[in-house]
Design a protein that fits this description.
The structure holds two protein chains of two kinds.
Chain A: H1 3-21, E1 26-27, E2 31-32, E3 42-50, E4 54-60, H2 62-73, H3 80-97, H4 99-102, E5 106-108, E6 112-115, E7 130-136, E8 139-147
Antiparallel strand pairs in A: 1-7, 2-7, 3-4, 3-5, 3-6, 4-8, 7-8
Helix pairs in contact in A: 1-3
Chain B: E1 2-6, H1 10-19, E2 26-31, H2 34-44, E3 48-51, H3 60-70, E4 75-80, H4 85-93, E5 98-101, H5 106-117
Parallel strand pairs in B: 1-2, 1-3, 3-4, 4-5
């Protein structure tokens, strides 16, 4: 993956939080994923095919998703199922928005959603997997990208 | 006017319903995939449909084809994360009246619906 593509991902993430909440996310320095556990409470995974192959996942804690959900639905209650749904939708939106850069042959799957600390995310991320740390309102999350 | 909301995300279905409350539309159903959407569409023949694209079983563009075949005058607003221009154009060519990229604000979807329904702001 090129530096330009990585920057495009960071721009899409920044725009997402800004559009939905009015507060831009702060992005940490991207790094290449090693052996260390890199997931929070909820993780949404999207498989990529077509012009590029691999996948992306977005992983966040419960507190962040509850706060984000409150921006979308106001004071409507968010149960556990809604938080699963939200992490999948967020991942889908970020991956889908990237078609602006990669074109319409950048094909994205429906999201797969996982909960808890996952030792081995069995997904088709192609190494090297880049992790973009995302901090929004003081809460951490990650976007991971592994494309051929 | 009858409304059908189609999106595989429950949060998005709830958000769209909430944001469109002021239009006094009659929500006839919500669906999480294209097949379920078509069943509801045939049963209720809604005049307005908000339609996601990336969904399990039947995607939104295939669903749009069927809706246009069944009732071409249906006003369909495609709402999708697929932000490339060709996807938006494809939806419009198939008969959608509007295309809104995710993420969207309450004001953006209200504005799109207002335009599709021909309502003055």
């Amino acid at each position: 993956m090129t530096e330009v593509e990585l920057k495009a991902f960071t721009r899409v993430v920044t725009q997402y939080f800004n559009n939905v909440t009015g507060t831009a996310a702060q992005l940490g320095l991207p790094y290449i994923k090693g052996e260390r556990q890199e997931t929070f409470d909820y993780t949404g995974v999207i498989g990529i095919s077509g012009s590029r192959k691999g996948g992306v996942y977005y992983t966040a804690g419960k507190q962040l998703l509850e706060a984000l959900g409150a921006f979308i639905l106001g004071d409507e209650p968010l149960d556990d199922e809604a938080l699963y749904d939200l992490v999948g939708e967020l991942t889908n939106t970020i991956a889908g928005n990237m078609r602006e850069i990669f074109g319409s042959n950048f094909l994205i799957s429906v999201p797969i959603i996982m909960k808890g600390k996952i030792d081995d995310i069995v997904i088709k991320l192609k190494p090297p997997v880049f992790i973009i740390p995302i901090i929004w309102n003081g809460m951490n999350s990650h976007l991971a990208i592994g494309l051929e | 006017m009858k409304l059908l909301i189609v999106d595989d995300s429950n949060i998005m279905r709830r958000a769209i319903e909430k944001y469109l409350t002021d239009f006094n539309l009659e929500l006839v159903g919500t669906a999480g995939d294209g097949e379920a959407a078509l069943q509801l569409f045939k049963a209720h023949l809604p005049e307005l449909v908000t339609l996601d694209i990336t969904m399990p079983r039947m995607d939104g563009l295939a669903c749009l084809d069927e809706i246009m075949r069944l009732r071409p005058e249906t006003k369909v607003l495609v709402i999708s994360a697929l932000k490339d221009p060709s996807t938006g154009l494809q939806a419009l060519r198939k008969g959608a009246k509007g295309f809104l990229a995710k993420p969207f604000s309450p004001e953006e979807i209200r504005s799109e619906v207002q335009q599709i329904l021909g309502l003055s702001s």
